[in-house]
Each structure stands twice: as C-alpha cells, then as structure tokens.
Amino acid sequence: SAVISQKPSRDICQRGTSLTIQCQVDSQVTMMFWYRQQPGQSLTLIATANQGSEATYESGFVIDKFPISRPNLTFSTLTVSNMSPEDSSIYLCSAIIWTGTGGTEAFFGQGTRLTVV
Amino acid sequence: DQQVKQNSPSLSVQEGRISILNCDYTNSMFDYFLWYKKYPAEGPTFLISISSIKDKNEDGRFTVFLNKSAKHLSLHIVPSQPGDSAVYFCAARGSTLGRLYFGRGTQLTVWP
Asked: Could A45 and B49 be called an inter-chain contact, meaning their C-beta atoms sit closer than 8 Å?
C-alpha cells in the first residue's frame, strides 16, 4: 500500500482567488492523477500529472484553470485558478502503485473539500 | 458519457444480511475492475478488484462477481455490518497504469 498526504483538507475561498492543493506520496510513483468529485457525482478525472512534462488534461479541463506541477516522482500540486462557486468540490489526488503481487492499485489522498463563496 | 454506471444511489440493509451493489459498464476494453469504499471526509480506499479473466474474486466478507457478456459486476457483502455503511464506488480501467473510470457511487446504510 501507500500513504498519500494531501493538503489542505478543506478550505473556504473567495471567488476570483486561487488555491493550490499539494499531494505527497511516500514512495516514488510513475502515474499520478487529479480527480474532482462534485456533489452527487462520480469522481471525474481532471488530468494526469506527468513527471518532467506538462500534465495531460481531460476534455473540459484546461491548463489555465487547473495548472498542475509534478517536479518529482513523489509530489504534485493542483491549482484551482480564478475560482467561482462552481469550483466548489472535493479534489482528490491519486497514485498508481505496484502491489506485491505484480499488479497495480490506485491509492487516493484524503481529499480537499473546497468551498468557494 | 458515463462509461461506468451505478444505477442505485442508495441501498439500505439490515445488519447480518447480504448487501449487493451493482455496476454496469459500456467499454469492452476495460480489463480490470475495482471497488472503492469512501467515508465522509476521507479519500476512497481500495476494497477489492477483479481481472477480466476471472468471474469471481473473494476476500473475506467481500465477493465481486463479473459477467463480461452482460458488462456487469456486483459486490456482495456477507454478512453486512454497520461499519460497512459508506459510499461504494465501482471503477474500471483499460491498462495497468491507466486512469480509472468511476461510477457515481452507491450509499450503503447498514442498520442494526
């Protein structure tokens, strides 16, 4: 298994401001992802955080709004820029970890509950 | 387009009985399926998985069944316990290092 530390765990922000969420994994991982979970919805992938190159964004998400950094194999940040109330959501980072049985599993941080007022 | 669907947003079961959570998918390229459990204010935690080469995987009280022809999987919890009350997400992926596609989750409530 792996420990993924995400912070802040929650925040209340003013519209028009930006928030950076940090994700730290206790081991080196190849793949890291950022998801969003809006109320009553599934976890929606925002982007794949690639180490040493730009993140790969899913349809409907753009770099200007959700810039992502991945400076090394254990750390990533997601910034929610120029926030509006529609950005109120839970943001989750995830990492793919090789298990002892030769397969992989996805582990998650505890999430950041963002409220934009 | 939702590639993984959980059509029941909630399920209520008495303690000791079986809980059955269902999940359907549309993408035939998915070859690995997972169930995650999520408590409030926590991230999802991995529960159990199944490869497409199998039709059943069991881990203690939890069993996942896969019906590839129907593109359907289910999670059975026997016996259900109050501590099982949580949101359960079904997820699928198409490659070992690939992203997951999630359903919307089913809120399971196990009452004494």
From this structure: no
